[in-house]
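Before the break, one more example. Copy the sequence into your notebook; we will annotate it together after we see the structure.
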Amino acid sequence: VVSLFDRLKQLPRYLESFALVVKSPPAFVKPLLVVVAYGTPQEIEPIVELVRSSLPQGSYHLVNMVCDFFERVDAVNACVPVLRKFREDDIFFTTDVDIPVPSDILHRVPHYAVPDRVAFAPVAFWTPRAVVPVGSRAEPDDEAMFSSYGLIAISLKDYWAISGMDPKNNGNEYEDTHTAFKIYYHEIALFRFQDESFVHIPHNVTG
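Here is what the structure looks like once it is written out:
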């Protein structure tokens, strides 16, 4: 699930990376991208057209939020009717449009997010590999060590058990951190490590 905060310029790159994921999923996995587009009908229309032209039919689901002001938690919760159609052992993975999806992620996430046992929140890297000097490596920034930039993979069974994301966290931009604590308090392990395949692309406020 990816919510389009104010990062429309980042969307084509994200969709390109997800299209690669769709082309080579594991035999037992069928990826579905749920895109939450918000704004006026006129603002939503180009988003819908871009998604439809970038991804094969059946690999995405569009949720339109006609509203004046975006709240990240509300966007994720708008997906609940779609998620209710899936099995409890299916994996729910919230992502950030600023972080292109690694092509091999579907081969790894099922091992990192196990129902009743563990959820997954990778530590994303800030510096794009393309600008990292030869012989050096990208490093996670200080915020990434505390926040997961919205990246959380969890079974739907466990997501329902923690009652999902709390609307009280609208506006504070740390809803993923609060969700991580909820996972911990429900005695579900949270697997974190520095994963260089997740790179947060720098952007300005307006994206």
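Confidence is low (pLDDT under 50) at residues 128-136. The first helix runs from residue 11 to 23. Try to locate both features in your own notes.
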